[in-house]
Amino acid sequence: MNANSLHRALSAICLLGHVAAVSAAETPRTGGSFTVGVETEPNTFNPQLNGQAKADVTLRNVWESLLARQPDGSFVPWLAQRYQASADGSQYRFTLRRDVLFSNGEKLDAQAVAENFRHTQDARYCAGTSLCMMGARINSIETPDDFTVVINLKQGYTPFLSFAAALEILAPASWRSAQLKSGGKEIAGTGPFILDSYEKGLQVTFVRNPNYRWAPATAKHQGPAWLDRVTYRFLPESSVRTGALLSGQLDAIEGISGNDAGEFKDSSDFIYQHALNTGTPYSLYLNVDYGPTQDVRVRQAISSGLDIDPLLKSVYRGERTRGWGITSPVEPLYDKALEGKYGNQPDAANRLLDEAGWATRDSEGFRSKAGQRLSIEVIQAQATVRDQRDVLLQAIQAQARQRLGVDFRLRYVDSGTYAEVRNSGRFGAIANSNIETDGIDIENHYRPISQGGAINYSRVNDAQINALLDKAAGTLDVAQRRQAYSELQNRALIQLALAVPLYQPEDQIAAARYVHGYGFRSFKQMPENAYEVWLSDR
Fold this sequence. Notes:
Blueprint lengths: L2 H14 L16 E6 L17 H4 L7 E3 L5 E3 L2 E6 L5 E6 L13 H10 L3 H4 L4 H5 L2 E8 L2 E6 L6 H7 L26 E7 L3 E6 L20 E6 L3 H9 L5 E3 L7 H4 L4 E7 L3 E7 L9 H10 L2 H9 L4 E2 L23 H10 L4 E2 L5 E3 L2 E2 L1 E7 L7 H16 L2 E7 L1 H10 L4 E6 L5 H7 L16 H11 L4 H18 L3 E6 L1 E7 L2 E2 L17 E2 L3
Parallel strand pairs: 1-10, 1-11, 18-19, 18-20
Antiparallel strand pairs: 2-3, 4-5, 5-7, 6-7, 8-9, 9-10, 11-22, 12-22, 13-20, 13-21, 14-21, 15-16, 16-17, 23-24
């Protein structure tokens, strides 16, 4: 093998690895401070109410769940020592570890866990989150002894364990705290780090939990974290994060733009990794209840007329993966048959718009009918503007005007306005993605709002889709679930054109060579907390 071939091979290993390479001769060291530049500042430090997937990299340092996931998606013990499910999937029994303490000194027991599940049944608490969808399915919660929790569902529900593996457990005192909604030091968790300080708009710092002894089965070591302290600096711009790492101001960064990836890929000074997330692609969800998108022909024209591939190549320099379905390619329920089945058919799209009555053009080239322009307001929450999504939306806006004569009006809103707009239903489209697995992402987006569809942005309530959702959620047979979701996706994306998938979210991380153990969470493949991280000589 020549030098160039060897270099390429080593680079490929760095790209595919989920943890930083560590020599067999090196032993993890205790101590030190680790500083990471991150793209997203949590909008709340209550992990149950935080809907920002990118905030998990910080929040998972403090709060943990009953179960963890293996790379293949299977469940392994964490705060629960073991679990049992009834044959019909309607009852789940969790036996808890007996040695777990919250950072405020409270003990993790059956009552503490039960209270967390009870709050998922409180719509005033969990409104707008997927927790309400889980809570609505719970019939009763039992605590037969101090370390056993039994969840009885109203009927069998296959994705329940995924919820249980995602529900971060809060300490009992949290429910009495004035910080419950905003989060803070009083909202204690069981994690390897403890929230030390938070400077809004700047950074958050965590310190090692010296009592930590209950890492999940997926962990590579047990006991306290190696690091003394970890700080996450909030740096929304990719170029700023990149510059800070290159200049030695940071030890690692996440969220690397396509333009900046080349700075780290082939560098001997850094380790670069990337991985696709689970969940739904970043998509445009088209509202069936309001404005021009009420007409299925308009929705089909948008879906079939846009050509997404060249936009992704332009914005991300080939560093992102096109989305096609409503699950991620890394999930068992992904339907590869959807790839290439729609899009880049401008002639057919324009015929559909003519048939829908939008045949006239105004002075600026936009389609109009009865004096009204074909305008669609696209809502994007400011809190989830990341990964150059604003640039991508601008490119889509320009292409829609040029190819179709459609006026996409982009509107970026704060969290409060976002909730108001969603609840009112007065919008044309919402741009969003989701990381939930095992069909939860599909349920979130396509269940009727009245049945717990927390992020049903298309506001669909279709009998055929509802029946397929029930079928998939009611069977443990993976093949049957895959078939049901395949039919559902064909109905949702091809026939009804409820959404236009754009790209599959992924995470990218780069770290200096002296950083070890910084990698991705198994299965969901998002940047993991700092539990395994240790530092060698710089």
